[in-house]
Known about the structure:
Blueprint: H1 2-19, H2 23-44, H3 52-79, H4 83-87, H5 93-127, H6 137-162, H7 168-190, H8 194-205, H9 209-234, H10 237-240, H11 266-273, H12 279-325, H13 328-331, H14 336-350, H15 353-360, H16 364-368, H17 374-408, H18 420-445, H19 449-480, H20 492-518, H21 521-524
Helix pairs in contact: 1-5, 2-3, 2-5, 2-19, 3-5, 3-6, 3-7, 5-6, 6-7, 6-9, 7-12, 11-12, 12-17, 14-17, 14-18, 15-18, 17-18, 18-19, 18-20
Amino acid sequence: xxxxxxxxxxxxxxxxxxxxxxxxxxxxxxxxxxxxxxxxxxxxxxxxxxxxxxxxxxxxxxxxxxxxxxxxxxxxxxxxxxxxxxxxxxxxxxxxxxxxxxxxxxxxxxxxxxxxxxxxxxxxxxxxxxxxxxxxxxxxxxxxxxxxxxxxxxxxxxxxxxxxxxxxxxxxxxxxxxxxxxxxxxxxxxxxxxxxxxxxxxxxxxxxxxxxxxxxxxxxxxxxxxxxxxxxxxxxxxxxxxxxxxxxxxxxxxxxxxxxxxxxxxxxxxxxxxxxxxxxxxxxxxxxxxxxxxxxxxxxxxxxxxxxxxxxxxxxxxxxxxxxxxxxxxxxxxxxxxxxxxxxxxxxxxxxxxxxxxxxxxxxxxxxxxxxxxxxxxxxxxxxxxxxxxxxxxxxxxxxxxxxxxxxxxxxxxxxxxxxxxxxxxxxxxxxxxxxxxxxxxxxxxxxxxxxxxxxxxxxxxxxxxxxxxxxxxxxxxxxxxxxxxxxxxxxxxxxxxxxxxxxxxxxxxxxxxxxxxxxxxxxxxx
Length: 527
């Protein structure tokens, strides 16, 4: 049993090590260590060596890096068509399961240990203290054990979700509901009045750190045990192999199973339904129809996972955040940030599948063999998830508007200011187009969807860092030249918005042109 578990663990760690050798993965490691090692140490200062806030940074890290490995455990094998080979070996069920769980935990803890070391080095270099600063024994031991338990809980939850998921993306979408529960205490705290909230926070700070770690460790241990037992019960080889396991329905016979029936390309059938349209427009609509149809059908039934993701969005964006903000959600622009950023986040969930997914499903050759032009294929794959994400965002914002009117309307109809409508819709579309262009560009050369998703996540982090640096540089320049903010109230804000929209549109056009230039049929088949 131990040797078999070690075999599976070695296999998983070898695959992870090989995937981490790519430049994009190394850049991702540097970004994570910067966010959770260098940044917190510089922000907190010498107290970083003993502050309970340090523990919060360490615990968040396994929740970010470990989920991807855990959800890939069986769904990734199913996508790569290697699950049948793995389950056909003599390895016992528990060895396979424990090996994959152990790989997810060790992968998460490796990031935690690196973050601890990087934070300690940064602290000593930046503090200027004469002696060597070290973590307090309670913080170091408690942080390590807590992160280990958090890694175990999330690994068990991810593997449990991955058992029945057809793809990694479906597993991640299902697990997003669980992740939402982690934020419920935070959102609940914001409903408490400020005076009572301050008293609660003060009392929490006075709690003994060792006692707090003991209570949290006990609860995490129980939760990990329950999830582990449930995962062992659901691990049944006979139910993991059939394609219909995730839907409960038999799969329809494919065209290759019916050689006597004449078949025709999908784009030809769609062209016959649109005989009066110009050829380029008809071809574009054909690709859009194909992408939309696959979005609704892939992942073992995306409608069910789409409903789960939609429920998360409605609860968070449509109800919780508007209730927190009250009338400020409408009158003070509280919804603007969500309005702009949600399309980009939704696009990131689907755009990585554009070409990498076709390559994994071995359908890219068929698509490239059609008479559809490269421009039509690329634009169709780009615009379909973009319009879907943008439309879903408008629906969520509309639900949030209804929530605010019901909760804080006080008998009057609350509406968004006229200037906020084009800002939210326009910038949301432009930012979503930027992420879609970057996603398509990365998916063109990615061997797998997971690889494209990782590269896209790094690009998103880079954009977020660049945006923060730009804001900081702007503030520094305004203070340097003694420029106040009064000009913003006299039309300057509109000018800034128009200039920003123009710059973003130019960047979008450049990324789209670059993607079109890199779209080469012969090179796509060589990846």
